[in-house]
Amino acid sequence: MDEKIIVALYLYYKPLIMRKIYLLFSLLSLLLLPAQKQPDLYLYKTSEEKIKAWEAYCESLAESENYTLLIREAETGIHLSKEYPRYLSQFYFYKGYGYEYTNNQYRSAAANFEKSLKLAQQTHYLKQEALSLMRLNYMYYSLKEFKKGEDLINYVKKIVDTVRTRHSKAILLGSIGEYYLDRSEFENFINYKLKAIDYLLLDKNKNELNDNNIGVSYLQIADAYNDMKQYEKAIEYCNYATSYLKKSDGIAFLYNTFIEAYTRLGKIDLAKKYYTELYETARYNPMLFLNISYANRNMSEFYLDKNRLNLADDYADKALLFATKSNDEEILMEANTIKGKVLFQQGKYRQAITTLTKALNFAYVYDKRFYSEINKKLSESYAAQNQWKKAYEYYKAYSQTNDSLALESGKQSLANAEAQFQNKGKMQEIKSLVTENTIHELNIKNSEKQRIYLLSGLVAIGIIGGLLYYQSNNRKKINRKLMKLNAELDKANKTKMQFFGILNHDLRSPVISLINFLHLQKEAPEMMNNETKDRLELQTTKATEQLLNQMEDLLLWSKGQMDNFVPALKHYKVEDIFSEVKNEFVWVQNIDISFRNPQEMTIYTDKEYLKTIIRNLINNSIKVLQNKSGALIICRAWEENAESVIEISDNGGGANLDKFRALYDDRESVGLRTGLGLHVIRDLCKSIHCNIDVKSDLLIGETYIILRSKKV
């Protein structure tokens, strides 16, 4: 039988909860080839060649999970192959496949699979007929048309003995096992699944797909043991699966199984470990939201058993959230069940009834155990409200379902014993076969060693030549980089020399002029008459003004280097900052400077940056208040709307807001006569993530500068 048929059979028969998990995982593991580009049909001569190329293209789209594009391109294939019913059957299959995995459009998918099946049967195209049957059976299962699913498994049982390859037989046996797992027939499931693992282990064609299938099979057995409440056995089979599962999606499913087992065993620390790792693996993958929902449900169950209702409710809400996002009916049913149980335990009986009723709609179809449990909780909820008739109805449904489950549980111990027996016997058989295979492989390897040595020598020569060429290119690149860096260094040195030249030439003269005048005035005042004194004072004033302007230019030039400074942000007490700033203004007379911090606030900032900003804003206010009576400066701090606020206000008569434009406009130039320079204050504020605002009232003569920082 064609390998493609076997893979489809395997992919179809996934158990209901594991069906949607492991089916996805197996599909992802098949993506071994990159997506093919759309073929140019003009390059092909005959219609059949064009159709074959288009069929290969659609196959690559399916493998790369580009399902939306697959629907459109399959429609093109349908038009191309109107006269070729076999190919037409394939393209209808691809179109249905695209619908199946595009938001679970099962109705549209089923319609196309049915057309594919009909054409395959008319042309006796057995391979495509089997593929269409597999996908249709999954569609019928999802659409609750179970009779057709039973017909298919009977077909698989008929052909399994005719399959020769070990890998194919393993997949078919696994598919039959999963069919029984859907129906909670654990004995049959474990029997078939262990046989499937035996064949996979004996398969000589070891590859990633084979390993993934082994890992998935072990993981399914682990989940079955969780269902049977044999949690130590579940952990044992999880450990078997660990070394075979390499992809992130498979690992996510593994973590989920560990979480369920450890929560049931009460080992919450280990459960939390895998819960955290699961979130890191699956939280950004929408296709794995059902895993996150399932994990949260298990955590909620644990805390509900411990009567820690707040934690149980929190995890139940998360389970419900991700179940809704997953668009999976069974996962949503399970999430509603745990949420209803938490609401019942909280005494919210009406809400519990509403939530549990939602879960009950799908419970019997998906899991009889959940159906039984939900009926029991509904009975208890109605009883708590003294609605005895309703309570009796649900208790009766619970009792009947529970009796049927009890019959099945009697077989579980047999399944476990048989599984252990088969494992021991089969593993011994596997060891013998592996030994024979090893001897055979050694003989083959010895005959190939000489050829390998020759090829290795040629490869080594090629590698050495490649390395020499690579090193030569690297040296050239490094030399070019060094030349560029040297040029930049020369430019930086020239800039530095220019800067020191400015300091030496432009600032030295006015400073010397000022010093000479002061010495002359102090040591020989009698040598100057009034006219000379006025003239020298005028010269000194002009020189000082020139010095101020030159310092302003230097400050503006150096401001451009501020991007290289990195503030050290920490939490500081505002009282300490105010105290240090206050000490710097003890020389001020005739102006009342007040610092107010009624809330004893802390602020997340760079202390030196903030001190510089406050100090220079106060300096600006002092200059405005010179020679004014009743002068007052207030620096206040408080918290407001999750922000730390510092306000510097003065009664200097107010000012036009245009004078403060430099606080907002990078292009505005402000002189040093207004303090350190509003442009510098602006950049310092940006560096510490501080917003600055100005309010000025000319009528009452007050100005407010407000600094705002987000609390951290």
From TrEMBL:
<feature type="transmembrane region" description="Helical">
    <location>
        <begin position="452"/>
        <end position="470"/>
    </location>
</feature>
<protein>
    <recommendedName>
        <fullName>histidine kinase</fullName>
        <ecNumber>2.7.13.3</ecNumber>
    </recommendedName>
</protein>
<keyword id="KW-0812">Transmembrane</keyword>
<keyword id="KW-0418">Kinase</keyword>
<keyword id="KW-1133">Transmembrane helix</keyword>
<keyword id="KW-0808">Transferase</keyword>
<dbReference type="InterPro" id="IPR011990">
    <property type="entry name" value="TPR-like_helical_dom_sf"/>
</dbReference>
<dbReference type="InterPro" id="IPR003594">
    <property type="entry name" value="HATPase_dom"/>
</dbReference>
<dbReference type="InterPro" id="IPR019734">
    <property type="entry name" value="TPR_rpt"/>
</dbReference>
<dbReference type="InterPro" id="IPR036097">
    <property type="entry name" value="HisK_dim/P_sf"/>
</dbReference>
<dbReference type="GO" id="GO:0000155">
    <property type="term" value="F:phosphorelay sensor kinase activity"/>
</dbReference>
<keyword id="KW-0902">Two-component regulatory system</keyword>
<dbReference type="InterPro" id="IPR003661">
    <property type="entry name" value="HisK_dim/P_dom"/>
</dbReference>
<dbReference type="InterPro" id="IPR050736">
    <property type="entry name" value="Sensor_HK_Regulatory"/>
</dbReference>
<keyword id="KW-0472">Membrane</keyword>
<dbReference type="InterPro" id="IPR036890">
    <property type="entry name" value="HATPase_C_sf"/>
</dbReference>
<feature type="domain" description="Histidine kinase">
    <location>
        <begin position="502"/>
        <end position="706"/>
    </location>
</feature>
<dbReference type="InterPro" id="IPR005467">
    <property type="entry name" value="His_kinase_dom"/>
</dbReference>
<dbReference type="Pfam" id="PF02518">
    <property type="entry name" value="HATPase_c"/>
</dbReference>
